[in-house]
Amino acid sequence: MLVAWAIAGLAVGAVLNILVARLPRRRFSFGWPVRCRYCRAPLALSEVPALASYLFHGGKCTACGHRIGPRYLLVEIATGALFAGLYLRFGMSWPLLVYSLYASIFVIITMIDLEHRLILNVVTYPSILLGAALSFVTPGLEGGQGLLGGLFYGGLFLLFYLGAVLFYRNAVALGLGDVKLALFIGLVTGLRGAFIATLLGTLIGAAIGIWLMLFRGKSSQATMPYGPSLTLGAAVTILWSPWVG
User: Fold this and answer.
1) Quick check: helix, strand or coil at residue 193?
2) What ranges do the domains of the chain cover?
3) How many Å separate Cα 224 from the centre of its chain?
4) In the 8-state DSSP scheme, what is residue 171?
5) Which among 233, 232, 17 is positioned nearest to 112, based on CA atoms?
6) Pick from 170, 182, 46, 175: which is nearest to 106 by CA?
7) Is the pTM above the cut of 0.85?
8) Which of 156, 141, 123 is nearest to 187 (CA)?
9) Which helix H or strand E contains 216, and what residues bound it?
10) What is the mean pLDDT of each run of 10 residues along the chain (245 residues)?
């Protein structure tokens, strides 16, 4: 079952790639066929999953020969790895289904934030509602633990945001999208898990910021998206924290 769930993750990753490409352009449909971003030719079914495209077509569009970007392959492999890790953590169970869904949302938010410096409301608002609803039926989050986690993490980042606006004004790197993401992460990790996710997300963000300052200059830190640090901290928390699930 581990291999089957990992393969399911690869397939989900192919769908996530479509969403990552379409959502920032306000395209919310799953229209078929999927088209090459360069020549607009319809892609065959064997070309849509990036892994299949690399295996059977050398990672190139069969119509124009343009190479598929590495992001597509990365998303599929990362999603497959997350699904495999979640299976090892939860086994075939209700929490596995729930956290696989959350992991998919993390992947969408991460990739869009990396590429566009945006955390889209069309992703965060439904995710927050979903996380709040499922917190009542997810082990470890019952009894209001999910809601308390959301209030803690979301409230903490709201304070960070308001403080940044007050003291730094036009130089604010933290956005309301990060606040909404923190709220969602708190809902899905619970209060105790949110403490760990906060620590990990902060440490990861600080490490990336220091690296960027050392090797790319101070201006690069100001444009660094914080969403990926938060989602990575949340993923690690879900996979290894004894307080989640």
Assistant:
1) helix
2) 1-92, 119-245
3) 16
4) G
5) 17
6) 182
7) yes
8) 141
9) helix 176-216
10) 95 93 77 74 79 84 81 94 97 96 98 94 97 94 92 94 78 81 97 94 86 67 79 96 77
